[in-house]
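Hi Y.,

Following your request, here is the sequence exactly as I used it, all 232 residues.
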Amino acid sequence: MFTGIVQNIGSVVKIVRNKELLQITIRSGLFSGLVKTGDSIALNGVCLTVTSSAGSKSRRCGMPAPTRRRRGEEKEKYYLTPKNLVSFDVMPETIRRTTLGKLKVKDKVNIEPSLRVGETLSGHFVQGHIDTVGVISEINKKGADYLMRIQVPSPAPLIEKGSVAVDGVSLTVIDIKYNTFSVELIPFTLMHTTLGTKKVSDSVNIEFDIIGKWVKKLLSGKETARYSDDGF
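Below is the corresponding structure, written out as C-alpha cells. Let me know if you'd prefer a different format.
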C-alpha cells in the first residue's frame, strides 16, 4: 500500500530483457542502506518487489564479489549490489498494462516506498496496481501552476475533487469531460516528481481511487470491475 507521495526521483541505469521478463536497475539515494530484498517499492506508481539490493548477491548487476573455489571447480560469477542500486523484475502483465516497458537507460522515475503502519497518510490510498495508461493531451500554465489534461481509453470512475494517481503521484481531479480529466500541478510537485518533465502526447500510468472503483463495482452489479478500453 502506498499514498502517492513521491519521496525521490531515481534514474534507470540498466535494463535487461530475459525472454518475457524485464529486469530494471534503478539508482537512488533513497536506497542507501534502507531497502532490502523482498521490499515493495512503487516505480512510477507500479508496485514492484526488490529482487536485489545493497550488499546482496546477484548475477546481473553490481561489482564482482570475492569468492573462493576449489581447484578445478568452475567459478560462479556473483556481483555485490552497490548501496544506491536496486533491481526489480517486471512481469509480462505489468509490461503490457503500464509504461515500464518503454523505459530507457537514464530515464527518471518516481519512487515511493510502501506505507508503514503508523506513518502519516498524506495523499490517498494507492495500491500500485495500474488501471490503464493515459496520454497527456494538454498542458496549460496557470500562474505558477500547470493544468494537465489526460485522456484515458473510456470514461473513468472519477469525481471532481476526488483523487487519482498519475505516475504514482497523488493528485486532485479538477474537472472531467467524457474520457478526459484534468489535474493541477503546483511548483513543488513539478520540482520533486517527474511530472515536471512531461510533454503533450507522453504516456502516464493511471490508478483510479480504490474507493471509487469499489463503488462502481457495487453499483454496476457485475462480478468484476476491471478497467479496460470499454470501461468497467
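The first strand starts at residue 8 and ends at 18.

Thanks again,
Q.
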